Amino acid sequence: xxxxxxxRIFSAMAKKSQNGFILGILVALSLAHGLNDAMQSIVxxxxxxxxxxxxxSYGEIGLVAFTYQISAxxxxxxxxxxxxxxxxxxxxxxxxxxxxxxxxxxxxxxSVHSLMGAVFISGIGSSIIHPEASxxxxxxxxxxxxxxxxxxxxxxxxxxxxxxxxxxxFVREQAGVAKFAMLAALAIIALVPACRxxxxxxxxxxxxxxAPAPAAAGGPQGKLSARTVxxxxxxxxxxxxxKNFYTVSISNYYTFYLMEKFGASVRTAQMLLFVYLFxxxxxxxxxxxxxxxxxxxxxxxxxILGSAPFALIMPYANFEWTIVLSIAIGFIISSAFSxxxxxAQELLPMKVGLVSxxxxxxxxxxxxxxxxxxxxxxxxxxxxxxxxxxxxxPLLGIIAYFLxxxxxxxxxxxxxxxxxxxxx
Length: 424
Known about the structure:
The chain is mostly helical. It is 77% helix and 0% strand. The chain has helices at residues 2-17, 23-45, 47-53, 58-85, 91-108, 112-139, 145-170, 182-207, 226-251, 254-262, 266-294, 296-306, 308-313, 319-333, 336-347, 352-381, 383-390, 406-413. α2 runs antiparallel to α8 (182-207).
């Protein structure tokens, strides 16, 4: 009986949350997300320093990135499933402690194997934070789910973009990474109001009478069939694949590309990586509310395919145009993820934690695989060849053509589209 009650807590809280958009909770989650991702991106930004300090090859750098991404990607759906079944208010601080521990261990790692262990622990922190914070974001969103996810994700994007800047300004040696563990303490403080609010919601629902369980997707009452859900989920995950395989080539190897092709200094390359990541943060902020207004399908189309011309040109551009094109690519392609995630959450509204874990985890996993593969390719064929190869991946976004329109999905569910959705 308790298992069933816990499984319906999110359903009841989500229904209640339709009455309001809780900005304070969203800002707290966004700030914590930003601090966590800043800590994570500092590691990627100091790859050149670690390469020199530990005498690593490009392939070993790729394995380090692969280890971090896989620790997050494998565990995120598992944690998301657990959070759906057993919600609790203290999971987020636990995730932040894992991130902090990983960062401290990175500062004292003496070999590629100890470094891989350190980033694995750090990845566990992200695997807890992303699905759980995304669930709470959905609860605090009211009817503006795209905007809420954008607020949450732009915190992460801004934090991730600040990592290279912080590394360039304050990290001169490997041990200097440990000083940024203080960001974890700030993040835990930022999470206090959100965790207390969430704990109250859980307590209220556990003390309330049980409501009838809603029908799941694929069940009766006009819900989507399991086949439809799986087809649409496959399309969305393929879009994440095409997007992330390309963006990893920039986020993990952009500094090396600028240094090798144009002779940029490490600090200049780190600053330009910050510029790219900041433009990606702006794109993330725009994508969600635009999806609320004109439809998520259109945003997905524009985001992935719209970046393709710039991606195809960039490997042949000079230094100045490379900077301009990377900014355009970052802004356009990053607007997709909020739309993709909310689209998927609306397919399975009673399994938001699992869906969030799958998509964040899949995104991290693809990034990890891409990091390792691209590192090996760079060792054998050069970093410039990597950028020419990856420039074709945004073209795979053409598969977005097969995504059903919102009104089509609602008709299949037996729902009536709102006035704003009727034309989508």
